[in-house]
UniProtKB/TrEMBL annotation:
This is Leucine/isoleucine/valine transporter permease subunit. It comes from the Bacteria. One of its GO terms (molecular function) is branched-chain amino acid transmembrane transporter activity. It is found in: Cell membrane. It comes from Palleronia marisminoris. The chain crosses the membrane at residues 20-40, 52-71, 77-95, 102-121, 127-150, 174-194, 220-241, 261-285, 297-320. InterPro entries: ABC_transp_permease, LivM-like. GO terms for cellular component: plasma membrane. Keywords: Cell membrane, Membrane, Transmembrane, Transmembrane helix. Signal peptide: none annotated. The keyword Transmembrane applies.
Amino acid sequence: MTDAALTGTAGRPSAMSARVQVALVLFALFALFPPVVIALDDPFLILIGTRILAYAIAAMALDLILGFGAMVSFGHAAYLGFGAYAVAVLSSFGIHDIALQILAAMAVSALFALVTGAISLRTRGVYFIMITLAFGQMAFFFFTSLSAYGGDDGYALSQRSTLFGMDLLRSNTVFYYATLGLLMGLFALCHLIVRSRFGRVLTGLRENRTRMQAIGFPPFRYQLTAFVISGCLTSVAGVVLANQAQFVSPAFMSWHRSGELIVMVVLGGIGTLSGAIGGAVAALLLEEFLGAVTEHWRLYFGIFLVLMVLFSPRGITGLVQQIKGSRR
């Protein structure tokens, strides 16, 4: 049995290449953003752009298990917190190199995801959602209790991380492009994972778990591996967010933040890596725009999300495809 027949992906290469093209367009627009900001003479927008890129990384990492593995994790923001606190803890010991901080964040996240995933994946459906939420809240309250790092009040960072001993990331523009480079590299990695045999088996498990198990693919092993990979990638976003704000707090890992990540994935289009990136962009831009217009912006954001789900269940990606189809 071929890989295409195994997972039902025959005839989809063009769709996959189209999504890669969408991602390349998004990356090009991201790259052009700083010159536009400089022309507008509003440097604060660079910080907003960096925040968007960080959440795009987190949404894409979540989509790896939500969109391709049908695992709805409601505690995924815990890995944002692990990334953020890796920066704070290592900085307090004089370790400011961002590469070491990312490695530490990924190591802690891998261990947490391995243990909690091994337990959570013994459940399915709403039980899986609730147990991941429980583990996420356990991590949240653990960091709330760390008085040495500010507890519930958070912890201010004395400086941004360095890059191989050089203070290059002090510049907001350089930091923005470094984050963009991380997003592009992680997108390439996720794309390779999805296109690999591992990714196709994961997608097959999403479509028909029983059939995949019957032909010799153990669901637990593949799903746990994907869960760990997703947690590690999400922690990278936490490292970026800590440096962007130069502040960390348990709020990074609250269940509300996990819900926001799920909204980004749904808004962009579940099961499309480029859609997750677009969903993060759309969600955060809507938040900024509606927040500037009214203090009740969440109400209008909720209405928009309901309308999107009703009229385009596949999110922005599906809406774009519908528009293209209507023009032919």
